[in-house]
Amino acid sequence: MRIIRNAEEGRRLLLSRRPLETEELPMDVRETIFRTFGQELSPDEVVRRVIRDVREDGDNAVRYYNTKFDSAHTGELRVSEAEVRAAYDEVDIEIVEALRFAAERVRRYHEQQARGAFFDFNQGGLGQLTRAIERVAVYVPGTRAPLPSTVLMCAIPARVAGVDELYMTSPVLPDGSVPAVKLVAADIAGVDGIFRAGGAQGVAALAYGTATIPRVDKIVGPGGLFVTIAKKQVFGDVGIDSIYGPTETVVIADESADPEMVASDLLAQAEHDALASPILLTPSHHLAERVAVAIERQLRDLERGRVARASLENHGGCILVNDIDHAIELANHYAPEHLCLLVEDPMAYASKVRNAGGLFLGESSPEAIGDYTAGPSHTMPTGGSARWSSPLGVHDFIKTTSVVNIPDEVTEELARAASVIARAEGLTAHARAVERRIQGR
Q1: Active-site residue among 110, 248, 272, 337?
Q2: How confident is the model at residue 145 (pLDDT cuts 50, 70, 90)?
């Protein structure tokens, strides 16, 4: 792990971000694009063509791109109830029980959140109605790493919010199946229907509908580059939750921190993806050196060690800071997805944090537990969007309607001022519409 001794250099090397679209595509992806379209295309152009084809040819286009991009031959796009039931036989009972345990934790947390999310009022003729979105879909990436936890973290808040119809779409394995553990998680979370449609074709099908896949009101969930671009391109025709990039974690640690714990927390994020950003901020050069040694030792027997090492080398490292306040200042500027405070008195510093998707206080609250069983959704803002957005939650699945029911005795006062403003804007019909209310009295 590289150790950067100058904070400004650290800002430049570790705490700045490049747009996801600027990352060079791997050679195998570029070859797939050429085989599919007969020419080299940018990711944006690929997604635009996929969306166009799905809008025009529906299920057939989804199947075609499932074959081209995932080497998967899919017949029926909708997963049957029999397949979901059979999936329980394929998944170890210990995993099923762990998913049920996690689901209950996630459900209880979001039930608490829902108590403050639904707020109807009516005062002085003005009010608000809060309603759940009717039809939502969760996109859940992953086949070899199927991410059942993401199913729970995205679907359960929607169900708690009262969404009427809740669907899920997923990329498929070469045999055309959705991983059994993902089907079990969807069943536990209360998903109404599951579809075999990955990547941009899955997003397009949900945004515009096909003969098999229903058009939804909002699409939520993370995904890779092509899913991210697709969500951007369909936004406006359908709602989306956010744009998610590679995972990122900032660990702030002082001399009291256990270097083995710090190393394991950084590696837990580094193993996600070679594009992940595991960053340590500490005023202790001694701790930094010990963490670097611990990382090398722990990497030796890590299953995804090659991925974790690439992440650390390309996007991770340690920045030496003046003190913990300085570290929090840098973290607030970076606005990480995850911020872990492994310091002597984490609660004393928690109030100083302004920008983070999730805040993890002390060694007993590792971010890895947050990924699975803590309770809050692990789908959190990335790419600095924690400066203005929040983790996925009940609020993402509700909307409000303004209610105007003005008492007769108040209308004249409001209409006179409205008339003046309307005429100032040159909107005569607006002015006359309110003036007639006055004249009719």
Answers
A1: 337
A2: confident
Tell me the average pLDDT across 229-235.
Answer: 97
- Residue 171 pLDDT exceeds 70: yes
**Strand 398-404 versus strand 358-361 pairing type:** unpaired
Q: Is 337 a catalytic residue?
A: yes
* 336-387 pLDDT tens trace: 999 999 999 999 999 999 999 999 999 999 999 999 999 999 999 999 999 9
Please report which residue ranges of 235-357 form alpha helices under DSSP H.
259-270, 285-299, 305-315, 324-334, 346-350
**Model pLDDT, residue 109:** 97
Residue among 272, 315, 338, 378 flagged as catalytic: 338
Q: Where are the domains of the chain?
A: 3-18+246-388, 81-240, 407-439
CA atoms within 13 A on the CB side of 181: 18
> Which DSSP category does 74 fall into?
-
Q: What is the DSSP string of 337-404?
A: SEEEEESS-HHHHHTT--S-SEEEESTTS-HHHHTTTSSS-S----TTGGGT---S-GGGGEEEEEEE
Which H or E run contains 318? strand 317-320
How confident is the model over 107-121, as a mean pLDDT?
93
Pick 81-240's CATH classification: 3.90.1150.10, 3.40.50.1980, 3.60.10.10, 3.40.50.300.
3.40.50.1980
* Percentage of the residues of the chain whose pLDDT score is greater than 90: 91
| 378 among known catalytic residues | no
For the residues 235-260, what does the mean pLDDT come to?
Answer: 96
What is the model's pTM?
0.93
